[in-house]
Design goal:
- This is Chromosome partitioning protein.
- The protein is an alpha/beta fold and about 260 residues long.
- The protein is about 40% helix and about 15% strand.
- Helix 7 links the parallel strand 6 and strand 7.
- The longest helix has 16 residues.
- The structure holds adenosine-5'-diphosphate and magnesium ion.
Amino acid sequence: MGKIIAIANQKGGVGKTTTTINLGYSLSASGKKVLCVDMDPQSNMTSGFGIDDSSLNCTTYNILIEERNIKEALITLNEMNGISIVPSSIQLAGAEIELVPMLSREFRLKNSLKDIKDDYDFILIDCPPSLGLLTINALTAADSVLVPIQCEYYALEGLTQLMNTINLIKKNINHSLEIEGVVLTMFNARTNLSIQVVDEVKKYFKGKVYGTIIPRNIRLGEAPSFGKPISLYDPHSKGAEAYEELAKEIIERNGEAIE
Ligand code: ADP
Ligand code: MG
């Protein structure tokens, strides 16, 4: 059975999209069947996989609002271990408001994923930087949440709000929702600040923090403009190594041997 993981943090620029693309790719490179779903109207995940969002006729917008079959939106990237993508487009910006009066508005993504869940080992959902209905759809559909936290000033700011939202969803909508883990991103070993943030986050989340820490790495910032995961753009970079390690850790935590 496929495991659905929402990559969420309502702060922008913490590494959600970078983590979705590169963790997704690294899981697929380990032989897992992977689907990555773009729930952000900015569609950075879509373009980061090299897909031009101006030419698409079915995206997360059509799935959520028009209840189109998710299979119509699926794009398979053969050159990337056959990873599947559900793309987004700027149209999705309207969905946050359009969903409000709709029936089963929190369950639309969950319902659409039902048919295809078993076709994958991992389904990663890239969330937008807000706690509105798009993120709520992701948290409702998910088995677990993976939270990226940037090693910067105010790293812990907003986390209480995020945890409150996760707990509300757990209590009212999705009782089995769990924290998959917390990944520290953009770590700079030369600053005391980065080291302090790691300590603070470990105190806050106890055993949930991954041993793998994603370093600040210029190549990670460049890869999206070439439409490639880091492991294809620069396989020997620190960024590529880190996301490959993270994928191994996640496979291990989920109780499976690594091929
Ligand atoms: P979010 O999806 O949370 O808004 P992104 O993944 O888009 O965050 O990251 C924000 C910006 O930082 C992007 O330009 C991305 O390329 C860059 N970035 C992300 N992770 C790293 C990293 N580890 N090192 C350097 N740049 C990074
Ligand atoms: Mg993003």
